């Protein structure tokens, strides 16, 4: 399979305008993988995978293309949501999966409007197959639950907002 520089440029442009994050083309000994993170990988069965930038596209044309960087389109900045300064956020102490209840068939630890006490379990964060109960550090009322059940969470991500007493 031969691919000239203009065809490659058109392919990269088309890929950048889609939701596709990775595209692999294979033909015989030729393999081309494009990833939106900017990696361009060329490999063949007879050689180890090699990251190449720039890549000679065609020995016949003698052209050596400039480095190609594919980036996702920039999202417009969103203003941070207005948060009542009197509210206290319960944040995730680790990366993991957020669970509102101790088991799928059981009721959630807390719901919006519930009164909680300091030390009360409000959710579970599963990390590396370990279930970690997260306890409230404040007494008050749950005003908002910011994460859906069974969703991944990051370290420091707000999970709930509490109106303290």
What fraction of residues sit in β-strands? 25-35%
Low-confidence runs of at least 5 consecutive residues? 38-60, 67-72
Q: Sheet bearing the most strands, described?
A: 4 strands, antiparallel
> How many independent structural domains?
2
Task: Report strand order across the widest sheet.
Answer: 1-2-3-4
| CATH architecture annotation name of the largest domain | Beta Barrel
Distance between the termini: 70 Å
Written account of the structure:
The protein has two domains: 1-72, no CATH class; 88-164, OB fold (Dihydrolipoamide Acetyltransferase, E2P), CATH 2.40.50.100. The chain is elongated. The chain starts with a helix and ends with a strand. The strands form three sheets. A four-stranded antiparallel sheet has the order 1-2-3-4, with no helix packed on it. The protein has one helix and twelve strands. 7% of the residues lie in helices and 34% in strands. It has one helix at 5-16, and strands spanning 22-27, 30-35, 40-43, 50-51, 88-91, 96-99, 115-116, 121-127, 130-135, 140-145, 152-153, 158-164. Residues 38-60 and 67-72 have low confidence and may be disordered. By secondary structure, it is mainly beta.
């Amino acid at each position: 399979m031969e691919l000239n520089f203009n065809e490659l440029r058109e392919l990269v442009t088309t890929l950048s305008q889609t939701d596709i994050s990775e595209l692999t083309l294979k033909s015989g000994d030729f393999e081309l993988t494009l990833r939106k993170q900017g990696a361009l990988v060329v490999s063949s069965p007879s050689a180890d995978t090699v990251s190449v930038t720039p890549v000679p596209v065609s020995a016949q044309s003698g052209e050596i293309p400039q480095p190609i960087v594919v980036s996702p389109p920039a999202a417009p900045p969103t203003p941070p949501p207005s948060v009542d300064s009197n509210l206290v956020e319960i944040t995730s102490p680790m990366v993991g999966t957020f669970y509102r209840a101790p088991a799928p068939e059981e009721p959630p630890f807390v719901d919006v409007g519930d009164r909680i006490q300091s030390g009360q379990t409000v959710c579970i964060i599963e990390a590396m197959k370990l279930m970690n109960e997260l306890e409230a550090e404040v007494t008050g009322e749950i005003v908002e639950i910011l994460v859906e059940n069974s969703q991944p969470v990051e370290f420091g991500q707000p999970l709930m907002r509490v109106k303290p007493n």
